[in-house]
Amino acid sequence: MLAPALVVVALVALYPLGLTIFQSFTDKQFLALEPTKWIGLQNYRTLIHDSIFRDSIVTTVKFTLITVSFEFVLGLIIALVVNSNFKGRGVMRAVMLIPWAIPTVVSAQMWKWMYDDIFGVINDAGVRLHILNHSVAWISQPSTALASVAAVDIWKTTPFVALILLAGLQVIPQDLYEAADVDGASKLTQFWRITLPLLRPAILVALIFRTLDALRVFDVFYVFFGNRVDTQTMAIYDQNTIVSVGNVGYGAAISVAIFLIIALFVVIYVTFIRVDEQ
Amino acid sequence: MRFVNRSAFYLLLTIIIVYIAFPFYWAIRSAFTPDAELFKTPVQYWPSNPTWSNFSAVLSNSDFQRALINSTIVAGSITIISLALGSLAGYALGRFRFRGRSTALYMMLSMTIFPQIAILGALYTMINRVHLYNTLYALIFSDMVLVLPLTVWILTTFMRALPKDLEEAAYIDGATPFQVFYKVMLPLVAPGLVTAGLLAFIAAWQEFLFALSFTETPDKHTITVAITTFTGKTGSAFQIPWGEIMAATVIVTLPLIILTLALQRRILAGLTAGAVKG
User: Fold this and answer.
1) What pTM, to 2 d.p., does this model score?
2) Which residue of B has its CA nearest to A29?
């Protein structure tokens, strides 16, 4: 019964993974005129000196750190707010789900228009409200590019993080808070001593999923920047190498490197959880 | 948790709602604004001459129509296939004890965080080898790596939670496992199927990386690719047809929003079953 699903997974994931590893040791080109040769570790040696790849790692990690921290903090605040009993809470939860359901590229387009240098609402409102002195070229300017793209991801995913944290919050029994009230503990102490520890499993789940998602980011960067060199993420660089440039062998090496980097983060998290449980 | 006082609470709530909803409002407003007014400063916050022209241009655009159909075909097929395979696997993993069960489960779980980019090159090679480049089959095949582990995981969780009596009775009556699956478990786990199917559909609908990399001609584009390569009627090479892009955005997101609002309980159940309990 399990077999069909396993076969598909093996075919769609495990075999390609093995193939990628194999390809990384070759000089395979997409429209090769010569037959593919085995070149051993040469791709990897090139990779170590590849400054674009190094930059893409930095960009990706920066993006991950920014988005995950904002999404976590904002998500927690939103979850705490929505956790109280109020009329329309169900509607609120439904509304919070909407950004998650919208395709990432669609929301990226929406925001790209909002960021437009001349006709965008963000510049217009910012100038009118005297928050900005003049319009900012959010997307083209390197200094604001990463922030602008992070804002889109934060907008799209914070509600999702909030929902996961909310589910965790709702499992915490109310009596704990009531007992703490009786003991005279302040709200802040209650939050620190009761809420956070009991929320830990949900927090870890949210953090792991979000970090791994952020490391793989592709869609929103592609819509905003295409293959612009100074704003590439690991995934964009890899996709460009394989599909646009056609350098499959080298691209495979990049893929393996990305896979290892992500695996590293997983190991870090799992170790952290194990230590935490002791 | 009585976190903050009444008015501050509702203020926060309003801020959250505005934060989530504003980009949509802006997309809708832009969709209804004729191009002459769209590319004009100062920016209008409410269109003074609303028009349907952007919508009619988009809807009559054959590439766009084709893309909608393609997305539906791909997402629909994937949902059906992954539900079929996933429910079988879910029954096996959720109800039977056998060697390698936990390994299979952990593998499925780890697949949900699998970076698609890592196997892009290999899938690209595989697809070309069987001459399926630039076909929808390529997408249906590739997207399985995203969707199948998710459905297996959700359905396993649901199956595990079902009561045993009907199942045991059926076995006593001499039914084969497959019959039990078909006649007893499937009807019982129907809500789980809806949830898993919904999440599968949304995930496949959103997919961008593979759709971008494995299709070339507009007649094979899915909606995610179409929306990023939009060259509308009004746009020239120098001016991006933002009005039409926003209209396309509204057309694509409206059904998703309705779907999400209508089925939010199911979606939330699926997400938290996968995330929090996982």
Assistant:
1) 0.84
2) B125
